[in-house]
Specification:
With 284 residues, the protein is of the alpha/beta class. It is 37% helix and 24% strand. The chain has two domains: 141 residues, HUPs (Rossmann fold), CATH 3.40.50.620; 128 residues, HUPs (Rossmann fold, 3-Layer(aba) Sandwich), CATH 3.40.50.620. It has nine helices and eleven strands. The protein starts with a strand and ends with a strand.
Length: 284
């Protein structure tokens, strides 16, 4: 469970929408919050931070007081430096369980490029799971997509059966009592011959059935899907078709380039998808 959560707040309008995630995270065990707003070195003014940033910090302090009244333990940190590096440092130093950060949930090329800074850097180097909340722009406002609707969540759990994917599976299984439905998905993206593809498909179905049994034993509606095609694209379309409220996925998968994130399946899902994404690293 995620008891200690670091909330990464950038200097933007949608950032304040992250506070709406508290109700979701409370269902996942939230007790302590560390609110982090990093002042970039290049944007720091001579006497400290700018008046606009000071005004933003006042809003954060107001939210801190509201959350404390609700019974949460809340602290604020305002480091100076590169946001992703500072968030990583504080997450390790404070022994946090989860990092929460936001990203606009649109598929336009502009929005894809926007992800190329803090969020992209953070999900590559984060030492703990990262929840990337998604915003939908409506007019001049951004609205968060909730994880829990009608109290229960529908989780899409894509897997390539890597070590990291096992970590995601174990976590989702641990919160089964909070779930309405789990969709287990394996995407076949390679295979030299039709025979080898069929063999891989049968193997995947067998392994997914083993996972399915664990969820059904806990009373969770579960389905298994094995699909051929580009993994990122298939995960996004399946999430939309199944009405998933959360995608739980490994940060890095198997293969020769598993250590790289940019261009990977997880990166594509975050850039182009419209659903919240919970990223996991390797099991300890």
């Amino acid at each position: 469970m995620f008891k200690k959560v670091l909330v990464a707040l950038d200097f933007s309008g949608p950032a304040m929408e992250l506070f709406s995630s508290v109700s979701d995270l409370k269902k996942l065990g939230l007790e302590e919050l560390l609110l982090v707003h990093t002042v970039r070195v290049e944007l720091r003014v001579q006497d400290g931070i700018s008046p606009l940033q000071l005004k933003f910090l006042e809003k954060i302090k107001e939210k801190k007081e509201e959350l404390e009244k609700e019974g949460f333990q809340v602290e604020i940190e305002v480091p100076v430096g590169a946001p992703a590096e500072e968030i990583k440092r504080l997450a390790e130093q404070r022994e946090m369980d989860l990092i929460l950060i936001g990203s606009v949930g649109e598929s336009s090329r502009v929005r894809e490029l926007f992800l190329g800074s803090t969020v992209a850097d953070l999900i590559r180097i984060a030492p703990i799971p990262v929840l990337v909340e998604k915003y939908i722009s409506v007019g001049d406002k951004a609205h968060r997509i909730p994880i829990f609707t009608d109290k229960l969540a529908t989780v899409l759990l894509p897997t390539d059966f890597s070590n990291s994917a096992e970590h995601a599976y174990e976590y989702v299984l641990s919160i089964a009592d909070k779930l309405q439905k789990v969709i287990l998905l394996h995407v076949l993206d390679r295979g030299d011959t039709e025979e080898k593809v069929k063999e891989a498909e049968n193997e995947a179905e067998t392994r997914l059935k083993e996972w399915e049994k664990k969820f059904t034993e806990k009373g969770v509606e579960t389905s298994c899907l094995v699909i051929k095609g580009p993994p990122g694209q298939q995960i996004i379309s399946t999430a939309d078709q199944e009405g998933a409220t959360l995608i739980a996925i490994a940060r890095r998968g198997r293969g020769r380039l598993a250590g790289l994130l940019i261009g990977s399946t997880a990166d594509q899902v975050i850039r182009r998808g419209s659903r919240p994404v919970l990223l996991f690293g390797k099991k300890d």
